[in-house]
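Sample log: Tetratricopeptide repeat protein 39A-like.
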Amino acid sequence: MSNGKEANAAENSSQMTLKESLDECMEALDLFLNNHFSESLDKLRPRVNESMYHALIYATVLEMQAMMTFQPEDISNAGNTMKSAQEVCQRSGCVVNGAIFLFFAGRTEEIKGNIDEAIALFEDGCKAQQAWKQFHHMCYWELMWCYSYKRDWKMAYFYADLLSKESRWSKAMYVYMKAAYLSMLPIDESRPFGDNEVDLFR
């Protein structure tokens, strides 16, 4: 009987409260944001298979690493870890169609070269929430490049145009991209919204 009680006590001591779990995740994020990347991952790794918070942040950090390095092993690792995080979330009863999750899943597919899959995920990410418009701008930026990779210049222009009208980040960059996309169209093809690449380049 005492052995059973001791086992239960040990099990309970290994489980974290929600506050403890979130606090540890915040510590890991602080480490990451202060360039202590390995320490951040080390703090998250032990609980990635049991805590959806640890799993998602761990996967997000690896996704950012893959975006920065473009190394095949980092890309593969990030993709596999994101899938594992999705499984942990499903076990926790969490809906994995959250905007941030969809965005990073889209980035994973994009850097793998699965452009159509990436487009679908970025579009779903935009639909998932309407409160934070700046998040839409992140998706628009990625969608612009996805359509560039597909050489669908009008759709790439469409997202550059949305960014030029809605985002405050860099109007000059967005207008330049609009002009660049229009310049890729045949001379005799109509220009969207009456824009002209010559005027935009000025």
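Observation: The radius of gyration is 22 Å.
Observation: The chain has one domain: 2-152.
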